[in-house]
Amino acid sequence: MTRVKRGYVARKRHNRILKLTAGSKRAHSRLVRPAQQQAMKTLAYSHRDRNRRKRDFRHLWIARINATVRQYDVSYSQAISLIQKSKMLLNRKMLAQIAVLDNSSFNSILTAAIYST
After folding, report:
1. Which of 17, 24, 55, 89 could in theory staple to 28 by disulfide, Cβ–Cβ 3.0 to 4.6 A?
2. Which stretches are transmembrane?
3. pTM for the complete prediction?
């Protein structure tokens, strides 16, 4: 049986793995086996955190809306219910942006929602 030299193929695969873990510390960015383990862990974390980011932003929007709505003596759940019943097509992201950037517009949205029901 002839000898198979895998230098080019193996080097290409190793370099691809080492490129993924370029910012890691110590052996995780220099040696292939620890780098491969680190790359798998990194990809798993990034997959998990993409979904986590959506959850975190929703929490942030709810907190901002709640803080603004409390100034008008209305609870968060009541405000969302009123806005949905008045058929306003505003999601939590838009409401949070309006609450932070333009408080008077948010006030008019809330009063319109209260008086339309």
Report:
1. 24
2. none
3. 0.76
